[in-house]
Design a protein that fits this description.
With about 160 residues, the chain is mainly β. The chain has strands at about 1-5, 10, 15-20, 20-25, 30-35, 35-40, 45, 50-55, 60, 65, 75-80, 80-85, 85-90, 95-100, 100-105, 110, 115-120, 125-130, 130-135, 140-145, 150-155. A hairpin with a 6-residue loop joins β1 and β2.
């Protein structure tokens, strides 16, 4: 299901597939998922906060996030969220924030005002075959990383 109101983007619940949808000029997040959602070929831009937000086991495939007020993609929660073949650029903050047991693959992350990819996790992350370029901060920054956690970085 979804909910929306003045200034809201798109909020999805559990076991939903969203495709070919765009959000723009939302005062908060463009897309916000609470769980197991597949987002395919969607665009979020000019949102007041993040373009795409996921807290649990979501998949973003061929999505585009640009010119958002904070990050392009923000992944938090208990994990299992992955971003595939997507773009995040020209966001005010970080291109992609990765949380526990999440990852990004085959994606372009460039021209963001913060880090390209910022890892905020005590778990494992995968960053595979991505182009990360020309961000104001680090290409990849590990903010929270503990002994016993794993990071797999592949070209």
């Amino acid at each position: 299901g979804f909910a929306g109101g003045p200034g809201d983007g798109f909020h999805a619940a559990d076991y939903v597939t969203i495709s070919n949808l765009a959000t723009m000029n939302a005062s908060v997040d463009g897309f916000s998922q609470a769980g197991r959602v597949v987002v395919y070929s969607c665009v979020s831009h000019d949102s007041g906060q993040s373009g795409f937000v996921a807290t649990y086991a979501s998949k973003f495939i061929q999505c585009e996030a640009y010119s958002n007020g904070t990050s392009g993609f923000a992944v938090s929660g208990t994990g299992g969220t992955h971003i595939f073949s997507s773009e995040s650029y020209s966001n005010v903050g970080d291109g992609i924030l990765l949380g526990t047991d999440s990852g990004v693959a085959d994606s372009l992350i460039y021209g963001n005002g913060g880090e390209g990819v910022k890892v905020n996790t005590g778990g494992s992350v995968d960053i595979v075959h991505c182009t990360i370029d020309n961000n104001a901060g680090n290409g990849i920054k590990f903010s929270t990383f503990n002994r016993g956690n794993t990071a797999a970085l592949y070209d």
